[in-house]
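Q: Got a minute? One more chain.
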Amino acid sequence: MELSGYRELWRTPGVMGLLASSLLARLPVLATMVPVAFLAKDLSGSFRWAGVVAAGYSIGMAIAGPLWARTADRRGARGVLLVTGVSWSVVLLLVAVVPAGLYRVLPVLTFLAGGLVPPVMQTLRAAWPRVVQGPALRTAYSMDATAQELLFIVGPMLGATAVSVASPRLGVLLAASMSALFIWWYALRQPRPLPRDADSPQPLTARQLLWHRHRLPLILSFGLWIMAFSGISLGIVAFADEHGNRLIAGIMEAVWAFGSLVGGAVAGALPGRRTSYLWRRAVLVTAGMLLCVFATWSPVSLGIALTVSGVTLAPAIGALYERLGALTPDTVRTEVFGWMGSAAMGGAAIGSAVAGAVVESFGVRYVWLVATALAALSAVLLLRIPPEQSAADRSAGGVLGETA
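A: Always. Here it is, folded:
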């Protein structure tokens, strides 16, 4: 990564405002799940129910995410962001004020909330080519990914702090208020869409886009990773509850994300090799999760293991995004990332529900054992994904495998 790319981004009007507003708009999403999980557990008395509530949220996101992204492409991002941002805040408010005797409606409300999550990440990835071009575009994506890791530290910590200092209800109310303010600001920063040429080829259908020998394994593997990550997040909440200090949950999430931030920064600074196989990075992710299985005997040991495990995450995720983008035509690249988001939310729903049952039936340690098995399965799926190529090879060969 060259510093000239950062200088060009800094000089381009609107770039810093777009990035800052998008980061703040994403913050409520990451700050929501810790207080929602604790609220569900407090009202029902069961982590199994907390997993069901989290699963409802993820299922809603998985179903509605591609629909909002497609609507934003056709009708404009600003209106979609404004409508979903306000609606999401209202539903979160309802979640926060649910009486204890009506805790069974929480999965329905979180399903609605998940279906109204604003498509911030999808619209940002579509907006970057409209405001920057050339080498600065890659820098913009890299800077966005690095800043995302900081949000994984700040967001859960913010939610856990609200739970520890006040209550889970206050944490959900805080997320609702942040959503109403920050997503509104981000929506107003949206650039105008690029004009479309009438002679442009028709985009691939959903079946053509997804049913592909390389794209399908990539999307499924990402879903398995998120399934594992979601289960681990609930396991962290259960671990903190076992030790009688709910602030531990935010600290554990923070050190996990910090490890990922360090791993991404180091991987970006290393010289790239001509062949970089994605399955090798998936094996490292598996090894990091396996390490946590043997470190749940104290908060310090688990914190160290989560930091080491986190180091493997950002390099693997970044490589997976690069492979999916390189193996997808430009006309449907935003859509394919939307479908990847749906796979992620579906994985999160399953991961949360399974983790809740595992905690109740076997114990916290086995959450990381299940995550290890899921990561190992993703490594198997990625064995036949072609390695990352040099820029010269990509330009010469174009998009691979479109006729496959």
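A: The mean pLDDT is 81.
Q: Perfect, thanks.
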